Amino acid sequence: MKAAFFDQQGAARDVLQVGTLPDPEPQPGEVRVKVAVSGLNPSDIKTRTGFNSFAMPFPRIVPHQDGAGTIDKVGPGVSEKRIGERVWLYKAQTGKAFGSAAGYVVVPSTHAVRLADHVPFETGASLGIPAITAHRCLFADGDLRGRRVLVQGGAGAVGTAAILLAKWAGAWVCATVSRAEQAEVATAAGADLVINRFDENVAEVVKRATGNGVDRIVDVDLASNIETDIACLAPSGVAIGYASENPQAKLSMPFLSTMFGGYTFRFVFFYSIPQSPFQQAVEEVSACVASGAYQPQIAMKLPLERIVEAHQAQEGGKAIGKILVEL
Q1: Percentage of the chain lying above the pLDDT 70 cut
Q2: Which of these, 24, 57, 32, lies nearest to 43 by C-alpha position?
Q3: How many Cβ atoms are within 10 Å of 301's Cβ, its own excluded?
């Protein structure tokens, strides 16, 4: 099969290769998926670059956790009825060397989730990490119907997923962005209110729009936005952080006003979400997608031979939406 891989950590142009590797074979409880589209995420970049001094976990790595395609072979213990099934993938490279940036990938059967026939593979490859992360941020503290949600960083992959899922669940959604083209993406995702954080006072606009603040905040950089988040929260509101630009960032907050507000602060890391809510996320993300309510922004789709460009675009931070690699 054709695949992208790297044998050492470093810059994309220095370490990423495209070549031929043996076709994988499914073991008990596994399925083999003929990959149509592979989805790129920041964690794929971190694995390749050795972010925060993380060592190379395997001698050779085929990158990417997310993807979509068609099951073409099953291992012992998996029904042959799954052969031919269209699926979206999660954790394709978790705990093993070979992920979805290849013609075929082998995953546990549960990691290949049925994708409705009318849903494009591009949408399926955009789920995985961003959609499941966003779901956990939004629903860890209960139902959203009639609630008010602020998404800090509404044009990013997780931010857009949070807007789409929150609107599907019946919430009012406000999103912050940094530039006009990001505002277009957040608006297209369904945000009721979009705020340019450089042009407006976020807390003032949120309080004016809601009266007493929002019930949930999904934040791409909680450590940097903590004061704004506290000012935006309604009594007993929850602020959830899922990322930080600075691995050494520290979080501090005023004790009394935080206590008086009864605020809760939650942290979400995709790879440590407990099994039960993770499965709930998989099921509800699939339901949202099947309903037609999940329309992710695709920044670019490149052939496997141009995977270096895809990784460079992800690292550059200028692309708005998901970056996909087509097999």
Answers
A1: 100
A2: 57
A3: 15
